[in-house]
Specification:
Layout (H helix, E strand, L loop, with lengths): L19 E3 L16 E2 L5 E2 L3 E3 L8 H10 L2 E4 L5 H18 L5 H7 L5 E4 L5 H11 L3 E5 L6 H17 L8 E7 L2 H10 L3 E4 L9 H5 L5 H9 L6 E4 L5 H9 L4 E4 L14 E3 L6 E7 L4 H6 L11 E5 L4 H18 L5 H7 L2 E3 L2 H7 L5
Parallel strand pairs: 4-5, 4-11, 5-6, 6-7, 7-8, 8-9, 9-10, 10-11
Antiparallel strand pairs: 1-15, 2-3, 12-13, 13-14
Length: 371
């Protein structure tokens, strides 16, 4: 057969984190300390740092969510348990925050005037009952956690949640907001906003324990994915997947994300669920913790569901200590990046960021290469 049009979109290359570097610019930023990292989480809610603990069973339950709140970010409580179990975690988080707010400084107290307590749900009809329980427990942001967010089931659950908002309007002091995703195209962004999303979770197949791209061939490299959606979005963008280094967080923000979901970088910390395990012989033992994807066979086994449509894997990662140390290291890098391009705010950083595409030799040069 003769084709007059190409069978793929060849208009431009698509790029991911290792393909680009940020171009430095003239800066009058007096100190990295003056760089404000306050950013939009949803349309109405803000966080002090653009970091989010991923809604994965091996990443975010009570301890991680609470720690992230104290540090100025947010942890999204995962949905891979019973409704009552998840609601209990959310309620414990709500009670801890409200009871201990007086112990924190004015900056954190100010944030409490709009407290962010987030939890994940699915997109099935029964998830509206989970949503109700989470809201009653104290959640004010719900994340619809599905692999392919540009889907009829997303349209349906967003409609159901809009109806729920109306029904709760007289019973709640403040309304809740909804994060929808995952998506990877401008068309999806437009549709999800039209259907009622208050923020967009962007990225398909880039997670460290995700196998979507190699099993299905589906996905778009993350930098180009973020840029194309940032061009059309009217709601905050949350980058999800592909982050390995603090510089990747800066690149995601420069490409249009308002905040970044982290899984692997927080894996193995004190605050993640699961026990520390020991590997190796006496005298050379290593502390490890398990880390697994939401679509992995491990997760499906723990959730007592059929072992099909596997698009994730599991691994043991080295024990890393406190999540606070990880956050501090990442934020040092982000503030430095902001200084390098003369930006004292996250929004200005996005406006000032330009990327240069690099070669494999450029990537090698970017890494410590004397070690």
């Amino acid at each position: 057969m003769n084709y007059t049009e190409p069978l793929f979109n060849s208009k431009h290359k698509t790029l991911t984190f290792d393909d680009v570097q940020i171009i430095p610019k003239y800066s009058d930023v007096s100190s990295r300390k003056v760089c404000s990292t306050v950013t939009s989480f949803t349309k109405k809610r803000y966080i002090d740092i653009p970091l989010i603990a991923s809604p994965m069973k091996s990443i975010c339950e009570f301890e991680m969510a609470y720690t992230m709140w104290t540090l100025g970010g947010v942890g999204i409580v995962h949905r891979f348990n019973s409704v009552d179990e998840q609601a209990d975690i959310v309620n414990s988080l709500y009670r801890r925050i409200t009871s201990q707010i007086s112990e924190f400084d004015d900056r954190v107290e100010h944030r409490f005037t709009n407290p962010v307590i987030a939890a994940a749900i699915g997109s099935k009809q029964k998830d509206i009952f989970r949503a109700k329980a989470l809201l009653q427990a104290g959640a004010n942001v719900l994340l619809i956690d599905i692999a392919h967010g540009h889907h009829s089931s997303m349209k349906q659950i967003l409609g159901d949640l809009r109806a729920l908002k109306r029904s709760l309007a007289t019973d709640m002091d403040t309304s809740f907001e909804v994060i929808a995703g995952n998506i990877a195209t401008p068309e999806a962004a437009k549709d999800l906003e039209k259907w009622g999303a208050d923020a967009l979770r962007v990225g398909i197949g880039g997670g460290s324990v995700c196998e979507t791209r190699i099993r299905t061939g589906v996905g778009i490299p993350q930098i180009s994915c973020l840029q194309s959606i940032a061009d059309v979005a009217n709601t905050p963008i949350i980058s999800c997947g592909g982050i390995r280094y603090p510089g990747d967080v800066a690149k995601a923000l420069g490409a249009g994300a308002s905040s970044v979901i982290l899984g692997s970088m927080f894996s193995g910390t004190n605050e993640t669920p699961g026990d520390i395990q020991y590997f190796g012989k006496y005298g050379n033992r290593h502390k490890m913790k398990i880390y697994h994807g939401s679509a992995s066979d491990v997760q499906k086994t723990l959730s007592f569901v059929e072992l099909n449509n596997i698009e994730g894997t599991a691994t043991m990662v080295p024990y890393k200590g406190s999540a606070e140390e990880i956050v501090d290291e990442i934020m040092d890098g982000v503030r430095s990046a902001m200084s390098y391009v003369g930006s004292e705010s996250i929004h200005k950083f996005y406006l000032n960021t330009e990327f240069v595409q690099i070669t494999t030799n450029g990537l090698q040069e970017a890494m410590p290469h004397l070690l």
